[in-house]
Write a structure and sequence with these properties.
single chain; mainly beta; Immunoglobulin-like; 25-stranded parallel β-sheet; 11-stranded parallel β-sheet; about 40% strand
Length: about 575
């Protein structure tokens, strides 16, 4: 997955002659001329009013004061002219609290720091619509809160292209809110305190609401606790986020579903563990009755355990026969090695059975796969993991076939995966020896110098940076030489006649020729093997044409040799009634 790299301009060249002290009700514009704005008391943006903050402005809290917006805030920085919110000398302050449930607040190119106090956030939205873009949050207890605890219809909240770092608890907290998008953000160095908070943490505290946001394209890494946590402490049914195309790595645990559900697609979940810590290391952990989620097209590798389930949890890692097409597996689960050396792809310590069909594992051998899966076959108290049928660890080419007349093997792309495809190996008879290697944009290979009438086996495998797929074999017989086209195809432009010679000799049976005009997909005329010319009729003077001729054999048709373009002849009439 493409890692998100964020850069922020944190230096300011503008020097203000004097600061502006602010407190109480504030609206209108904080501009660069008045910067820095020293917050010397609690600030309120009144209802139905707007506080606009211009690019390059600094807001410095001189004490533990909060900015509360009953109206809205428009903080519009620029790439090289960031807006700064921070505590004087790094001192803790109260952050920003948004309560307007109608008018959207916006924070673009902002850096918000130093709300490292127990009950404060960098930004806390109380069902208030908000758009955050290209911003940076650092040094907080909790950086961002998107809450809609008492709202039947939550306001839309969004954070994109932003970075959250150095947070004691959660970088982003979402409470009872399904109307949230987290897109293309970097979340790192969160969960630094002693309590277990996910870098992105979802909480559901009401059975009349839901907490099912969209979390996509994020880079969630090097957090001291979980990367993503679903904390459904009351066991309600409606916590089911959509989590797609994220990279989740180098955390204590990758994704932790405490009685959580959801749809997880295309994520790369890897290297989640603390060295030699047996309590860490799950790529995905599901806990509790009601914990159940769908996982498809994920790559889960190099954790201590790929998937760990306990206390009544289950999961759908691939179910082929339920009439649904968006849960058909295709996960890659491999190299999840505990520090004592065991490979744990799935550890189902829950009493419930689970589906894990149509996935790629560490091996093609079911006996080897079975060793990496802990389930009811190892302990009767555990549920069974149904992992068959399984896929090759490296998806092979699809739709492999051989055109026997032209001795050519064809294929198509492998099934989608997170592996890096670099080409294909072609085999002939000996599947232990590579016959040819081609690039990723080549989908055919023609064998030469085969013996007519012999039986052969063609094979094709997909080659990845990570390894080679299984070889897909296709038996075929050589029916003779490739069908040679006519030779010396020429055109008499004046008479509109195309001429040709016999093809090169071959073991195929020549039966005639096809003649084409313009449309090379439609036969214009067919002639016998002793005919070597064809005159077109019914052509329009002044129109441009292209002629084509192919050789036709009992075994098939050759390629079409095209000639032209040409104009049909213009017939010049002679004088009449000439006398001497």
């Amino acid at each position: 997955m493409k890692k998100l790299l964020l850069s922020f301009c944190l230096l300011f060249l503008t020097i203000s002659v004097s600061a502006t002290d602010v407190s109480g009700n504030q609206s209108g514009t904080w501009n660069l001329a008045g910067s820095p704005y020293n917050v010397v008391g609690e600030i309120i943006v009144p209802s139905n009013e707007t506080l606009q903050i211009d690019a390059g402005v600094e807001i410095i809290a001189m004490g533990d004061y909060k900015i509360t917006a009953l109206g809205n805030i428009l903080a519009s920085g620029a790439l090289n002219d960031t807006i700064r919110f921070y505590g004087n000398g790094g001192l803790n302050w109260g952050g920003l609290r948004l309560e307007d449930e109608v008018t959207t607040s916006q924070f673009n190119y902002c850096r918000i720091s130093n709300t490292d106090d127990t009950n404060d956030y960098g930004i806390q939205s109380i069902n208030s619509p908000i758009l955050i873009n290209n911003s940076y949050f650092d040094d907080h207890q909790k950086a961002i809160s998107f809450s809609a605890l008492s709202a039947t219809t939550p306001s839309y909240m969004e954070i994109k292209n932003s970075k959250i770092a150095y947070v004691q608890k959660s970088g982003i907290t979402i409470t009872d809110n399904s109307n949230v998008l987290i897109d293309s953000c970097e979340v790192t160095r969160c969960g630094l305190g002693t309590s277990f908070y996910g870098a992105i943490q979802l909480s559901l505290q009401s059975n009349s609401h839901s907490c099912s946001p969209v979390i996509t394209n994020n880079y969630i890494h090097h957090n001291d606790k979980q990367g993503i946590t679903l904390a459904n402490l009351y066991g309600y049914d409606n916590m089911a986020p959509t989590v797609e195309y994220n990279e989740v790595c180098y955390n204590y645990t990758g994704i932790y579903l405490y009685v959580g559900k959801g749809y997880y697609k295309g994520n790369h979940i890897h290297h989640n563990f603390v060295e030699n810590n047996a309590d860490s290391g799950a790529g995905v952990m599901l806990y509790g009755n009601g914990a159940d989620a769908i996982f498809t097209y994920n790559e889960v590798n190099n954790n201590y355990t790929g998937f760990y389930l306990t206390n009544g949890a289950t999961a759908n890692l691939g179910y082929l026969n339920n009439g649904v097409t968006d849960d058909n597996g295709y996960n890659q689960i491999y190299n999840n090695e505990f520090y004592t050396g065991e490979i744990f792809s799935v550890y189902n310590a829950s009493a419930l059975d689970m589906k894990a069909e149509n996935n790629y594992w560490d091996s093609d051998d079911p006996e080897v796969i079975d060793i990496t899966i802990i389930d009811g076959n190892d302990d009767p108290a555990y549920g069974i993991v149904d992992y068959e049928p399984h896929l090759s660890p490296y998806p092979p080419p699809t739709n492999v076939y051989v055109a026997e007349i032209i001795w050519t093997v064809f294929w198509e792309y492998p099934e989608a995966s997170n592996l890096t495809l670099i080409g294909y190996n072609v085999y002939l008879d000996d599947m232990g020896t590579i016959f040819a290697t081609v690039g990723i944009d080549v989908f055919e290979y023609q064998f030469e110098d085969l013996v007519v009438g012999n039986d052969y086996i063609a094979g094709v495998s997909a080659v990845y940076e990570e390894g080679e797929s299984e070889i897909v074999e296709y038996p075929f017989s050589t029916m003779g030489d490739p069908p040679n086209p006519p030779l010396n195809v020429v055109l008499n432009h004046l008479l509109g006649i195309v001429f040709w010679d016999s093809p090169e000799p071959s073991n195929l049976t020549l039966i005639g020729y096809n003649v084409y005009l313009d449309d090379m997909g439609t036969i214009f005329a067919t002639v016998g093997i002793d005919v070597f010319e064809y005159q077109y009729t019914g052509l329009v003077w002044g129109q441009d044409y292209v002629a084509g001729v192919s050789a036709v054999y009992e075994e098939g048709e050759s390629e079409i040799v095209e000639v032209g373009s040409f104009w049909p002849p213009h017939i010049c009439n002679p004088p009449t009634n000439a006398t001497y």
